[in-house]
TrEMBL record:
Keywords: Aminotransferase, Pyridoxal phosphate, Transferase
Species this chain originates from: Alicyclobacillus fastidiosus
NCBIfam families per record: GABAtrnsam
Catalytic activity, reaction form: (S)-3-amino-2-methylpropanoate + 2-oxoglutarate = 2-methyl-3-oxopropanoate + L-glutamate; 4-aminobutanoate + 2-oxoglutarate = succinate semialdehyde + L-glutamate
Keyword Transferase set for record: yes
UniProt-recorded name of the protein: (S)-3-amino-2-methylpropionate transaminase
Length: 441
């Protein structure tokens, strides 16, 4: 290989030449260094981070204490594979996760590498435990890009197109999106109707006795930061209990202080899911995920039926232990609430003078702003969001889109962002929105 030729090419040229086009990149910049909520590219330009690696960097980028524990762990033990020998970080972490997960009673935990793996294994143990084959998921959901993850995911382009056939016995129901309720219908009536739709599904779609699991995001991530109403979540819990269905709450994006609680489940009093899936900010950027749930469910498979070569890698597990310590010590859940309040206040003020802002919503520092062509039809306006994203990038603010129609800007800044950085980022966002609206009006 001629290394001189490669060295002569810019990093963006390498991306264009060697990375498949299916690997999307919203912000065409190569970041070479980051700290907290700030990032720098190969030319030394500074950016504010409002994406957090899609919700992975709640404790910030290159957090010094995490860098230290990973370095110390690397000098002791890189890898053993949990199936060959045990290692201390894995065991300490599963203990800690079982202590903090909002599930009543005893718990067990399985460590894996990604959110999609966590979802896959949660469904596996639910099927093994119940002896059933069907799974209920929801419209606008996102549960990963693996075959089972895509079967549960509800967004065709770009995720599902041309990748079928998918896993059978997945049944999809409407998610109770209050912004999209029929005009004139009360929120209570809409939620009641959504619950009735779920109950009717056992007559029209699938026998309740064949359903192994219901899986739901308490706040839809890729779906546009839509918050599940408390009464609907409690209805799911009651229905699962009644029919012996495993209730899985996907906290991959909502977990680890993002929503103003350590887990979004805690916003729903007495919810008590059977399984919670975790990933993203759990590892501060290192690949790690978990399935935490009731021992009877997680113990239902044969020995060897769960796991993977890299699951619970000592470096990632050590990082995750430090993440939990930092979040509790520095009260990052409270900080998330403050960030969310400031963000919602700014966007709500902007909504009063920009009719294209249809909805501002979220929990804690998980805030989404949905853009529509007009308030009556609520028709998605992805072209405006694309231009806003471009304007943000030009102002060196890194953002990320969401929504089935890519008409939502989601805010996922690191929770360690300073007040000054937050205010500057929100000012850049407001300027980008204002300029984009003026350009397209």
């Amino acid at each position: 290989m001629d290394t001189q030729i490669i060295a002569s090419k810019s990093l963006l040229q390498l991306h264009s030449q060697y990375v498949p086009k299916g690997v999307s990149v919203q912000n065409k910049v190569v970041i070479t260094r980051a700290q907290g909520a700030r990032m720098w590219d190969e030319e030394g330009n500074e950016y504010l981070d409002f994406a957090g690696g899609i919700g992975v960097l709640n404790v910030g980028n290159a957090q010094p204490e995490i860098v230290q524990v990973v370095s110390e762990q690397a000098q002791k033990l890189f890898h053993t594979c949990i199936h060959v020998t045990l290692n201390e970080p894995y065991l300490r972490l599963v203990e800690q996760l079982c202590n903090i997960a909002p599930i009543d009673g005893e718990k067990k935990a399985l460590l894996l590498n990604s959110g999609a793996e966590a979802v896959e294994n949660a469904i596996k143990v639910a099927k093994s435990y119940t002896g059933r084959s069907a799974v209920i998921a929801f419209e606008s959901a996102f549960h990963g890009r693996t075959t089972l993850g895509l079967s549960l995911t509800s967004k065709v382009h770009p995720y599902k197109a041309k990748f079928g056939p998918f896993v059978p016995e997945v049944y999809r129901l409407p998610f109770p999106n209050l912004y999209r309720k029929p005009e004139g219908q009360s929120a209570q009536d809409f939620i009641d109707e959504s619950i009735a739709t779920l109950q009717r599904a056992f007559d029209t779609y699938v026998n309740a006795d064949d359903v192994a699991a219901i899986i739901i995001e308490p706040v839809q991530g890729e779906g546009g930061f839509v918050v599940a109403p408390p009464r609907y979540m409690q209805a799911l819990r009651d229905i699962c209990t009644e029919h012996g269905i495993v209730f899985i709450v996907d906290e991959i994006q909502t977990g680890f202080a993002r929503t103003g609680k350590l887990f979004a489940t805690e916003h729903y009093e007495g919810l008590n899911p059977d399984i919670i899936t975790m990933a993203k900010s759990m590892g501060a950027g290192l690949p790690i995920s978990a399935v935490v749930g009731r021992p009877a469910i997680l113990d239902s498979t044969e020995v060897g039926g769960l796991g993977g070569t890299y699951g619970g890698n000592p470096l990632a597990a050590a990082a995750s232990l430090k993440v939990i310590e930092i979040m509790e010590r520095d009260e990052l859940a409270s900080r998330a609430q403050q960030i969310g309040e400031k963000s919602v206040a700014m966007l709500s003020r902007l909504q009063e003078r920009i009719p294209f802002i249809g909805d501002v919503r979220g929990l804690g520092a998980m805030v989404g702003v949905e853009f529509v062509r007009d308030s009556a039809s609520k028709e998605p306006y992805p072209e405006l969001v694309a231009l806003i994203s471009q304007k943000c990038f030009e102002k060196r603010l890194v953002t990320v889109k969401a929504g089935v129609y890519s008409n939502v800007i989601r805010l996922l800044c690191p929770l360690v962002i300073t007040d000054e950085e937050l205010e500057e980022g929100l000012a850049r966002l407001e300027s980008a929105i204002t300029e984009a609206v003026a350009e397209l009006s």
